[in-house]
Amino acid sequence: MSTDCIFCKIVNGVIPAKRIYEDDDVIVINDIKPMAKVHFLIVPKLHVETLKDCDVTHQTLLGKVLLLAPKLAAEQSLSGFKTLINTGREGGQEVFHIHAHVFGGGKV
Predict the structure, then answer these.
(1) Residues tagged active-site
(2) Is residue 39 one of the residues assigned to a domain?
(3) Position 18 in a domain
């Protein structure tokens, strides 16, 4: 855990958030600045700053994140959706704790 990371604080219950889904490895929350009718974040509980910091040891976790996207999108009544993982400041990443955006239900 990073002591100044907002997602680590959410994972540990320091900052409240409405959780759409949670298991031992990830939490899923609505984005606080949605860019579509449905916009949620799949956040691994393990603190890894960016996708470029991942290696083969993260393979199962990354696969889980991607496989959760269609399952949770369907639960949100989305027939189609977009996924996005921003990587690094130049890639548009604002919170340096890896997470996947899932958008749907309108223009992004």
Answers:
(1) 99
(2) yes
(3) yes
